[in-house]
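job 3f2a | input accepted
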Amino acid sequence: MPPRHVSRIARSLRIAAVLGAIAIGSEPLAAQNAPRTGAYDPKLCPSCAAWNAPHTPVRIIGNTYYVGTDGLSALLLTSSEGHVLIDAGLPESAAPILASIRALGFRVEDVKLIVNSHAHYDHAGGVADIQRATGARVVASASSAKVLRTGKAGRDDPQFGVALPFPAVARVDELTDGDTLRVGPLAIVAHLTPGHTPGGTSWSWRSCEGTRCVNVVYADSQTPISDDTFRYTASTTYPTAVQDFRRGHALLERLPCDLLITPHPSASDLWARIAARESGGTPALVDSGACKRLAQRSSDALEKRLAAERSPTR
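job 3f2a | predicted structure (314 res):
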């Protein structure tokens, strides 16, 4: 099937460059059946090479470390009784993530739990390989678990037509909203924040340095982007998408949040904030208003998308 051009509305509302969402390619539904051997064809994923550029692992705060690539977050929460990994980038991100864990002086075999923000190829693609390397338990929302087990987005995903397949995960347990998952002294809370995908999940935990503890939030993507056929105002496959987004925005506004991290580090200006920390400048890494601002930006983007869909010129 030849590629379809995205519509004017889809182009104008693609906010990936601003909020760090995945870039929409022009491949049709055939992408769902593309074979997974090595890195994705740049024609299918023109952003993948930049996303997967290496990045030195860095301590965010306390026992929370960044072990992802330059454009795709992966976080390691550590303890003497085992570690938690959040997200795993692209399929080809698995190796650099494992290398970053080792570079920090931790054993990959001590990763006991892997969790996910949303089951797209750029955040869940490396889960299968990392699970094999670590033997870790994988836990996800019920909707995300279905996608992880098959490696293919469901038809209720707004990006179904352009979501690339990724290696299926052999064993996935399911969670419910508000569940607290534990590894030794680590406790990480799941907050269902669907909209970007039906199974989107944000995570919160406390991380301490000495006597100073902060509430860390890993907020799932809140961007209303889709393939060229999906309409948030008239979807039959995901009719609750708008309501789900709005509930997620409200949650992020009220969630205790001292330090925000997002699946694409650019969406929360992570590198600028870390550079400022190192230089003693601004903006601050710890910022209790960051989640509220993300929620407001995301809400504005959603309303812009809905207005564009209702426009008679669409």
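job 3f2a | Residues 1-37 have pLDDT under 50 and may be disordered.
job 3f2a | closed
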